[in-house]
Design a protein that fits this description.
With about 210 residues, the protein is mainly α. The chain is about 40% helix and about 10% strand. Helix 4 packs across helix 7. Strands 3-2-4 form a three-stranded antiparallel β-sheet, with helices on one face. A two-stranded antiparallel ribbon has the order 1-5. It folds into two domains: about 100 residues; about 80 residues, no CATH class.
Length: about 210
């Protein structure tokens, strides 16, 4: 899906969705799978048909790894269980089948930071996202951005503009910034002054926003 959104914007969206509980950003453990058991039952073994030999064997191994860590993600390395008869394919297939249980969650091994959606049935309008606060924060960000653009395009003394921004009532110019040198016609170095554009380009706005966000 092609969206006109920056990497920074994607990261912000992920943090908001994670905070609302819509997604889980898993830790970047190399080649580790994640399991989660949400049940008070001592074991889920009775939920598995007795004829499902490999599934029951894998479940016992998982429950041994999970221990008392119920209702939270547990990182495991299923390849350690490979033995005579229990192959990698059987382990993976058994884990996928176990994930069909309502109280068993499984995320396959991955590289990097994986994103997991615990419940795909939750509608977006049911998520607890404070859009009013987000709108206020966006307005503040745009105000900061406008201040930066104004500063960059202004012909006023740079030092005077900065001091004024922080409430200092100083009225004397510095005499050494690019604007002061241009106005005085000083010959100790040509100032690098770009003509003010008719409209601020999207690229400039994006660069300024990234600078403001740190």
């Amino acid at each position: 899906m092609a969206l006109s959104i920056s990497t920074e914007g994607v990261g912000t969206c992920e943090r908001l969705l994670e905070k609302s509980g819509a997604i889980q950003r898993l830790e970047p453990y190399r080649n580790m799978a994640v399991v989660r058991i949400d049940s008070e039952l001592p074991s889920l073994i009775d939920l598995i048909p007795k004829r499902s030999k490999w599934r029951r064997q894998v479940l016992r191994l998982v429950e041994k790894e999970v221990g008392d860590s119920r209702y939270e993600p547990v990182y495991i390395q299923p390849t350690r269980w490979i033995s005579q008869g229990l192959t990698k394919e059987r382990i993976n297939r058994s884990l996928r089948e176990l994930a069909e249980l309502e109280s068993f969650d499984y995320v396959p091994p991955f590289r990097g930071r994986s994103i997991h959606v615990p419940d795909r049935t939750v509608q977006f309008d049911r998520l607890s996202i404070d859009f009013d606060t987000l709108d206020k924060r966006r307005e503040l960000d745009f105000a900061k951005l406008q201040n930066m653009v104004t500063y960059a395009e202004s012909g006023r003394c740079r030092q005077l503009a900065m001091m004024s921004y922080f409430g200092d009532k100083t009225t004397s110019t510095c005499g050494s910034c690019d604007n002061c040198r241009q106005q005085s016609g000083s010959d100790f170095g040509e100032p690098s002054v770009m003509p003010a554009p008719e409209a601020t380009s999207p690229a400039l706005l994006q660069a300024a926003r990234m600078a403001l966000s740190g």
